[in-house]
């Protein structure tokens, strides 16, 4: 029953345990990881083109995306806002001008462009493209191995994680508040509860959640998961400057797994360098939990 969880954990743990310390190798692994994400998203788009009743299913994807994203954001926001009210954080001070929102938006939309390109290629229905799903599964194993190497290369150890109180607590709040969001979304959409819980467990890591969900539930749910987490990242990116001055933990928690990479520059410039350790710890924990939680609920 839990063979899917083992398939996720084995390459992830193997990559983390590899004693890779040379900067050149780590740089090459990070470069390969970026390219693998694009390759797998291309396979996702191809797989979507082979779905039966395609037009109707595209409307299903839009509906799932909007309802699920709304449930997750509202539940996370309410829980994090309550924490900020009970345990207020020190006032944040910007450490520099914010990066161009247009530039960050275009970076995220590139991912959508790759999925659309794969979808258009898949519409040709070349016989070889029927193997896209299997190819995506093999590429996923390599991706997880590279993710493990990247997490190890971030330099975080267990002591640093456990002793950063804000990062750990915010991660716990996001995890706990995402579960009722998944249940609520499942009820509103008429989906099995486990599917809703899996959809709410991507924590903003759209490049991974879409892949895992496609393998577990098919292209419709997989592409919905991708769009849910992409939408979450885009919204959190826009809200950071508005929230971080007064609601530091809320701004951090809404970023999810991206707080250690994509949204980290925005957090640092809007909230100062003091938020960086918590952001890295929070993103590290969310990145570690996302594949485990999705695989668990997909089992």
Automatic annotation (TrEMBL):
Transmembrane regions listed in the UniProt entry: 6-24, 36-54, 60-83, 104-126, 138-155, 167-191, 203-228, 274-297
Cross-referenced Pfam families: Lys_export
Keyword list, A-Z: Membrane, Transmembrane, Transmembrane helix
InterPro entries: LysO
Superkingdom, taxonomy of origin: Bacteria
Signal sequence extent: none
Descriptive protein name: Lysine exporter LysO family protein
Organism: Tatumella terrea
